[in-house]
Amino acid sequence: MPNVQRVTEKVFQSPSKYIQGPAAIKNAAKYLAPLGKAPLLIADTIVYEIAGKSLTAALEQGGFKVTRGVFGGEASNQEIQRLSVIGQSSGVDFVIALGGGKTSDTAKATADQLKLEVAVLPTTASTDAPCSALSVLYHPNGEFAQYSFFMKNPSIVLVDTSVIVRAPPRFLASGIGDALATNVEARAVRNSLNFGKGLPTEVSAAIGQKCEEILFKYGRQAVEANKAQAITPAFEAVVEANTLLSGLGFESGGLAAAHAIYDAFTAIDDHNLHQFMHGEKVAFGTICQLILDGASTAELERYMELMRSVGLPITLAQLGIPNVTDEQLRSVARLACAPEETIWNLDRVLSDDIVFNAIKGADAAGRDYESKVAGR
Ligand SMILES: [Zn+2]
């Protein structure tokens, strides 16, 4: 957010502990013991079958009493209220999120409501949601509603890479799309307040850079390993970049245009567009921001090459909206420039019209790159 109050403190915040490895769920009792003995386990029915049963077994063996809260699918206020009631009536003493970004966002908000600590166990490396002290909430129809902020980050983030590797590779690629925005956004907002309402520290800038370095070095290799369900050093590194580095990097570094434009795209009422994942839409938002930043063609193409190599969309047609009208894009630009949006962290002249032109320019650059690659 723009630093109108002239805050001079730097702030960095993070989970207390991050654990990642191929046997993390099997060893979960050891890591979660400091949080309590009676968790509310929030997971949807599919994830419960894939990983929830083995987690429950591991915890029960460790003497935990697990209460199940079935996640309905949308990170909405209604869902948070419903799960809070279950938690309250069962007398749980901490909350576990097991699943994707929307599950962790819902569980973080539920734990905040119950004034309990939360452990986040992501089953995909598809978003930067697990580590942060905020949730992105949606209306029950999937349209972006608001950011919700909490007093504390999750106490523990535990990532079992033997579970992550069984998720479709598209999830890892989407996480790469989300993580690729981290450095592009953070480096553009060094003088604005981050999500901790302080200035970014040196380490948050370094985290954004490291995150990007890993993605360029290993992104494609990791997605290919994921296709073969192979847990390799490249795969582990990209899971860490998508989950830990991207999470710390965006929260303590700051967001800018890429995520604001993403938020705005969620409001287009188009079934095809809604099929795309958070990081896939963020990837296109990143191209828009690079255009706004006046990136050189060589720099733009460096990002687009990586995005393309892992199957991320770089044009509006690839985002499922080949016939989107200028009128619709103007309303996206208008929403991206809403007063509370992260786009205002950029310290430069901005308007709906400038953002509309950046979106058009991003699509043109993406199409040009596609035809260049096709002509090779
Ligand atoms: Zn994101």
Summarize the structure.
The chain has 376 residues and is of the alpha/beta class.
What does this structure look like?
Keywords: Metal-binding, NAD, Oxidoreductase. This is Glycerol dehydrogenase 1. Residues 15-161 form the Alcohol dehydrogenase iron-type/glycerol dehydrogenase GldA domain. It comes from Sparassis crispa. Belongs to the iron-containing alcohol dehydrogenase family. The chain is of the alpha/beta class and 376 residues long. It has two domains: 17-165, Rossmann fold (3-Layer(aba) Sandwich), CATH 3.40.50.1970; 169-375, Dehydroquinate synthase-like - alpha domain (Dehydroquinate synthase-like, alpha domain). The chain is built from 14 helices and eight strands. The chain has helices at residues 28-32, 45-61, 77-90, 101-114, 161-164, 169-186, 202-227, 233-253, 257-265, 271-274, 278-292, 297-309, 326-336, 352-374, and strands at 17-21, 39-43, 67-70, 94-99, 118-122, 134-138, 144-149, 156-160. The strands form two sheets. It has a six-stranded parallel beta sheet with strand order 1-8-5-4-2-3, with helices on both faces. Helix 4 links the parallel strand 4 and strand 5 (118-122). Helix 13 packs across helix 14 (352-374). The chain starts with 16 loop residues before the first strand and ends with a helix. The model has no long low-confidence stretch (mean pLDDT 96). It binds zinc ion. Zinc ion binds at residues 127-128, 178, 259, 278, 282.
